[in-house]
Amino acid sequence: MDIIEIKTIKLNTLIGVYDWEKTVPQTLIVDIAYALPPLSEGSDQLAETIDYDAIILHIQQFAATHHFQLIETLANRLVQSLFEQFATPWIKLSINKPYANLQAKAIVFTIERQRKL
């Protein structure tokens, strides 16, 4: 399986269960890995792969237009949306919420899914 990894996509979005979190944007850090369809032998064409710029833009737009209480819900819905838009059979996505708890540097939720046939 061929995999692309994109690290440290910064998002500003409304996320959280507390009242202040519903009005003050917070920074989330997203890491994503996704499987690619195999390239034709000798191919060097963007049309035969999944454009990582398009993936990043999709993640940014999704976070800007959808607001959730839980990073778990954001991750699940985002992966569903990525499967709807891109021909990848597998996605692993992590959402890092820095300083979500004073006792920890970050809370990170990771989801790994395969496309349902």
UniProtKB/TrEMBL annotation:
<dbReference type="Pfam" id="PF02152">
    <property type="entry name" value="FolB"/>
</dbReference>
<dbReference type="GO" id="GO:0004150">
    <property type="term" value="F:dihydroneopterin aldolase activity"/>
</dbReference>
<dbReference type="GO" id="GO:0005737">
    <property type="term" value="C:cytoplasm"/>
</dbReference>
<comment type="similarity">
    <text>Belongs to the DHNA family.</text>
</comment>
<feature type="domain" description="Dihydroneopterin aldolase/epimerase">
    <location>
        <begin position="4"/>
        <end position="113"/>
    </location>
</feature>
<keyword id="KW-0289">Folate biosynthesis</keyword>
<dbReference type="InterPro" id="IPR043133">
    <property type="entry name" value="GTP-CH-I_C/QueF"/>
</dbReference>
<comment type="pathway">
    <text>Cofactor biosynthesis; tetrahydrofolate biosynthesis; 2-amino-4-hydroxy-6-hydroxymethyl-7,8-dihydropteridine diphosphate from 7,8-dihydroneopterin triphosphate: step 3/4.</text>
</comment>
<dbReference type="InterPro" id="IPR006157">
    <property type="entry name" value="FolB_dom"/>
</dbReference>
<dbReference type="InterPro" id="IPR006156">
    <property type="entry name" value="Dihydroneopterin_aldolase"/>
</dbReference>
<dbReference type="GO" id="GO:0046656">
    <property type="term" value="P:folic acid biosynthetic process"/>
</dbReference>
<keyword id="KW-0456">Lyase</keyword>
<protein>
    <recommendedName>
        <fullName>dihydroneopterin aldolase</fullName>
        <ecNumber>4.1.2.25</ecNumber>
    </recommendedName>
</protein>
